[in-house]
Specification:
Number of helices: 3
Helix content: 25-40%
Oligomer: single chain
Strand content: 15-25%
Strand order of the largest sheet: 1-2-3
Largest sheet: 3 strands, antiparallel
Radius of gyration: 22 Å
Order of helices and strands: HHEEEH
Shape: extended
Distance between the termini: 76 Å
Number of strands: 3
């Protein structure tokens, strides 16, 4: 039986009202592979283009574009920072990319080039 004087009961109702039901469709759940991200911004938004670069192909295609408010971009950065720290605690430090201050485009993927 519900006790109207129980403060926890009101908290549970508020939590249920604040929850979002997120739907993940099958085609989206499969994801899109990206090995390059290009980030641009204006005073009101951040645009993140996810690109797949393939070896030996000089043209790359944007596979997905995500547009964020500056506040959400910062939340994403903090969430990524937190998740990277958790990942590294379990799996060890992620190898740093040389020259991480400038964008690097993996053109040869570090392996031999194919010849026909």
């Amino acid at each position: 039986m519900e006790d109207p004087k129980d403060p926890k009961q009101g908290q549970n109702q508020n939590q249920n009202q604040n929850q979002i039901n997120i739907e993940l469709k099958e085609d989206i759940a499969q994801g899109i592979y990206s090995n390059l991200a290009v980030i641009t911004h204006s005073s009101s938004e951040f645009v993140v283009d996810f690109i797949r670069v393939m070896p030996g192909i000089p043209k790359a295609e944007v596979k997905s574009r995500v547009i964020l408010t500056p506040e959400h971009a910062k939340r994403l950065m903090l969430a990524l920072t937190d998740n990277i720290a958790k990942f590294e605690k379990i799996h060890g430090e992620i190898k740093k990319v040389e020259g991480s201050g400038s964008p690097l485009i993996p053109m040869n993927f570090g392996g031999p080039t194919a010849q026909a």
